[in-house]
Amino acid sequence: MAKNINAKPFDEGTLRKLFIFKECFKEWLPVFIHNKFIDKIYIYDFFAGSGKDVVGNLGSPLILLDVAKGENCEYCSSIKGKELENKVIFLFNEKEPNLKSQKKFNELNLNVNDFIDKCAKDNLCDEGCIYKPYISNEDFKERFRESENLKYILSNKKYAKFILLDQYGYTQIDDDIFLTLVNSPATDFIFFISSAFVKRFAEHKSTKKHFPNMEINFDENKPKECHKLIADYFENLIPKNKEYYLNHFTIKKGANYYGLIFGTNHTLGMEKFQKVCWDVDSKAGEADFNLNDDFLEGTLFYGKVETNKIQSVKEEIKQKILSRKITNNIDGLKLSLKLRCLPKIFTDVVKELEKNGKIRRIGDSTYKSTNIHHINKGGRDYYDIELK
């Protein structure tokens, strides 16, 4: 039975997770809400919980609704009364397995409706809220695998999808579900996984059942790396010829390590998630603690040297440029994302190599490092790299 984390105040790790959900959705929604190539926007929260904790902290479904208002209700105002009004669709699901009484589902219904009623009243929406969430009480795996409507939505490239999978434990997101998400167009997803449990029960028959292909050599001396190793496992499931971006963020709770895994098929999606992660963790963009044993504030070398992650990534990019494995800025900027850094780190390396007389750039003289999907080979902001 899933633990009800909403039955008491959210702990620090849960609040951190919810903050990342919120910031990612804030970055994601504006990209699609006025996109003329997108007909509908589906926002799924498949493990929505009851909506808030006992002291009123908002859970994921209410956070999503709150963000969807926009600052000063700018999103509501911009689509209300227009053809966009039915473009944004929320679907919240909560199912407690093996229980006749679905307390969390009932609380979710109540909390969502109360939130919408209060929001409409506070913002003088006399005709009610423009968002009308669907709330369901279904088994996630059954719905994901059997719903023809969901299959159609996931496969439709004109439907943008933001999918939260805040499972309890690790048994809901298996290889097949992961690959279905990866192969769904216009789909960004974030799922939570109890990485410490996977590590602890790696040889248990239940774990083997859910992940029959998982063979991870967890280092008992490096427990804080367990989530990264699990993210690497999922990344290795992605076909080698498919351009796809996967990122992870580790959250520490007591002596245990949990985490988020984010997936997108678009560089802009990865840029957005990287921005959120590096805003939370300025050392590595990967954790809510000192994952790589960097110098901390107050120590002798703090601020005098770059962090271990930044040094490592810069060195890898530099060697790929000097060995001619990276010969233009598109490939280099995408490599930065693959290495789970913001694209600017590639530009910093290029500037350093230019200053030291190691390379020359042929093409545009700019150093564009954001919205890199706008850079096309031979076009504006594009350049080749030659060795001197």
Commentary on this structure:
The chain has helices at 12-33, 60-69, 74-79, 103-122, 140-146, 148-155, 175-182, 195-200, 205-210, 226-237, 267-280, 308-322, 329-338, 344-355; strands at residues 40-45, 88-93, 134-136, 159-165, 187-193, 245-253, 256-264, 359-363, 383-387. With 388 residues, it is an alpha/beta fold. Helices cover 40% and strands 15% of the residues. The protein has 14 helices and nine strands. The protein folds into two domains: 5-280, Vaccinia Virus protein VP39 (Rossmann fold), CATH 3.40.50.150; 308-387, no CATH class. The protein has a seven-stranded mixed sheet, sandwiched between helices. A two-stranded antiparallel ribbon has the order 8-9. The longest helix has 22 residues, at 12-33.
What is the gist of this entry?
The protein has helices at 12-33, 60-69, 74-79, 103-122, 140-146, 148-155, 175-182, 195-200, 205-210, 226-237, 267-280, 308-322, 329-338, 344-355; strands spanning 40-45, 88-93, 134-136, 159-165, 187-193, 245-253, 256-264, 359-363, 383-387. With 388 residues, the chain is of the alpha/beta class.
